[in-house]
Amino acid sequence: MSKQSKRREALVYHAKPTPGKIQVVPTKKYATQRDLSLAYSPGVAEPCLEIAKDVNNVYKYTAKGNLVAVISNGTAVLGLGNIGPEASKPVMEGKGLLFKIFSDIDVFDIEVNTENVEEFIQTVKMIAPTFGGINLEDIKAPEAFEIERRLKEELDIPVMHDDQHGTAIISAAALLNALELAGKSMAEVQIVISGAGAAAISCTRLYQAFGAQREHIVMTDSKGVIRQTRTDLTAEKAEFATHREIDTLAEALQNADVFIGLSTSNILSPEMLLSMADNPIVFALANPDPEIDYQLAIDTRKDVIMATGRSDHPNQVNNVLGFPYIFRGALDVRATKINEAMKMAAVTALANLAKQNVPEQVNIAYGETHLTFGREYIIPKPFDPRLIAEVPPAVAKAAMESGVAKEAIHDWEKYRDSLLERLGSDNKIVRLLTNRAKMDPKRVVYAEADHLDVLKAAQIAFDEGISIPILLGRRETILSLMAEIEFDANVEIIDPKTDDEEQRRNRYAEVYWSQRKRKGVTLYSAQKLMRERNYFAAMMVNEGDADALISGFSRSYPSVVKPMLELIGLAKGATRIATTNLMMTQRGPMFLSDTSINIDPPAEDLAKIAQMTARTVRMFGMEPVMAMISFANFGSSPSPRATKVRDAVKILHESNPELVVDGELQTDFALNQDMLQEFFPFSKLAGRKVNTLIFPSLDSANITYKLLKELNKAESIGPIMMGMRKPVHILQLDASVDEIVNMTAIAVIDAQYKEKKEQEVKAALAK
C-alpha cells in the first residue's frame, strides 16, 4: 500500500438540511476512480489492518468519534406515550438533525422492536462498536433507569438517556439563576416536584448534587404525595418518599419556594400558587400545555419567576441547550461515560452564560429589544451561538478532571476556535479585533446615537470594554432609548443644537472658518454647520475631544463623506481616500477594495489603493497577499480596462518590491492556487493563499462584496475608510448592530494605530 493510502482520513458523511429533505454528503472527494479506490478497495485495506493492530485506531481512520446513535423503542414518545418503534422514527430523525445543526455530530437513529429490558440492552451492546456515543430516547420508566444503568456500566463510550438528564441539566441551570434572583439558597428552599417519572427522578437527584436537602423535597405522582407509608412505590420513588403527613399537591405547596412540574396540564391552581412563599419559582414544564398557564401565573403573582417548556414564553427549558453540547464535549476527549461531574459542569456553564451580555443576533432571532439577565431571562436561548464554545469545553474539562477522558485537550482557545468553525461561526478575526480594541479603548463619538441600533451598538461596545462612547443626537430621544434598553452607564451625551453646546459650537466654528475662509466659508455659515451632527462630530475628533467617529447609519454615504473630507482631510502623504471591506468567507478572511469611493480609478490610483489596503491588512495582524483583479490574465487582452490593472501592478512592483502582489488576474485564478500554479507558475502569487483582492472599478468591487454577503451570508466588516488623517469610519446605510460594533472595534484600532505613529514621529523628531 502507498503511504497516501496509509494516511487515509475518515470518510465522514454529513447531513445537510434542506427544505423538505436531508442530503447526506461525504466530506472527502469522490469524483474520480482514484478517490473511490482510496475510499474503498484497494485503499481501504490499509486502515483496516491498522485498526486490527490497535482497536483505538478506529477513531483515527473512521467516523466513529463523531457518530452518535439515537436509540428508542418508542415506549414514551413525547406526550404520545407508547406508540411503538416505527411511530417514534420521525422524532428520532428530528433528534439526529438537532445534533447536527447545533454541534456538528453525525447521527444514526435506531428504533428497536422490543420492550424487554435485557433484549434492548443486548441489542445496543452489539451495535455499540459503530458509535462514539449512545443517546437513549423516549423509553418509559422504570425500564429506562435499568437500561441506562447497565449500558453505562457495560460500555466504554458515553451513554445518556436525554429524557432524564437533559431536562435535569437545563432546569438545574435555570433554577440556580432563579434562586439567585429570588435571594434564596438551594440548601434552604422547600421544593415540590409534580411527577415521578424518569425526568423527575433525574432532576431531583441533580438538584441534590447542587445542595438541595432531601428533607426539603416533596414529590407527587398521580396518586398524591409520595410518602414513606405508601406500599406501591418503585425503588426510584421510594428514594424521595417524605415523612411529612401530607397527601395532596395543595398541602405540599403551602409556603413552598419551588414548584417543578413534570406531569400534566392545569394541575397548579391560582390558589395553590398564592399559598407559596415570597418570590415563588414555578417551572411548569408539561408540554404542550403546562401545569399552569403562563399568563395566569404572572397575573396571579407579580413576584413569580416562571419557566415553561414552550418557546412562546420567556425561560424555555429546552433540552437542545444540553444534549448536543454535552455529547460534543464527551466525544472530543473520548470520554468513557457521561458522569455527574460532566453534567454539573454543563449546568454551571449554562447558568453563567445567561448572565453574560446577549449577542444582538439573539435579540433579533427572538424579536427582543434587549435580553438581559433577570426574571424573564434565566436561561440562554437555543439559538445563542455562544453555546457551542461554552458548554462543550466545560464538559470536556470535567471529563478530564474526573478521570473518564481517554484524550486530553491542552490548548483550550484553539479548541473553542475549532468548535466555532464546526458550525461556520469562525469569528476568530472579529474576536482578535475586539480583544485588541479592549487593550486600549478609545473615545468614539456616535453621530447618530438617537437611533436605537446605533445606541445598542454603543451599549455593547461600552459593556465589552471596546470603546468609551460619546452619544451625539437629541438628548431626550437618547435618554428614552437608554431607559428602554436599560443602558444606565454614565456616558457623555451631546446635543449639538442645544444652548448648552453654544460655547463649543462657536469654538469649533472659529477653527473651521479659519481653515476655510478663503474657500467661500463665512463665520456665520461655519456656525450654522456646527449645528449639524456630522460637522460637529468631525470637529470633536479634529480638536481632540474624541478619538474616533462612527456615522452613516441613517444618511447616504456621499453626504457623510463630504464633511469628513472638508474638516478632517487626508492623511500625510495620501492623495485620495478609499475603502476596503473585510469579508469572513469559507476560505478565511478576505479584503476587497475599493468598495465605496473610487468609481473608475486610473493605474496610479489603483496602485495607491493597493498600498493603503496593504497597510490596513497589516493593521489586522495579517500579511497581505494581493491579487489585482481583471477580466484578463497577464496581458491576454489589450483593452484599456485590463492594461490599467497591468500598469498598476508594474508601479507596485517598482515602488513596493517587498509587497506580494500580482496581476492582472481573473478571480478564479487568484483564488485557486492549483490553477494559478499550473498556468502561471511565474506569478508572485504562485503557491500562496490570496487574502486581498483589488478591483479595477467601484462597480465590480461593490457588486462582489454584496453578492458574497447576501448569497453566501459572509459577514462583512466595512467599508473601512483608508487615507483619512483621523479615525473616521462611515457605516453602510441601515447597518446591523453587530456591524456597528465591529466598525467600532475598527475605529478604536485605527485610533490606536494613528496614535502610535504620531508617538513614533515625535520620538524621531526628539532625537
From TrEMBL:
Cofactors: Mn(2+); Mg(2+)
Top-level taxon in the UniProt lineage: Bacteria
Binding site for NADP(+): 77-84
Species of provenance: Gelidibacter salicanalis
PROSITE patterns xrefs: MALIC_ENZYMES
Active site (UniProt): 95 (proton acceptor)
A GO MF label: acyltransferase activity
Listed CDD domains: NAD_bind_2_malic_enz
Name the record gives this protein: NADP-dependent malic enzyme
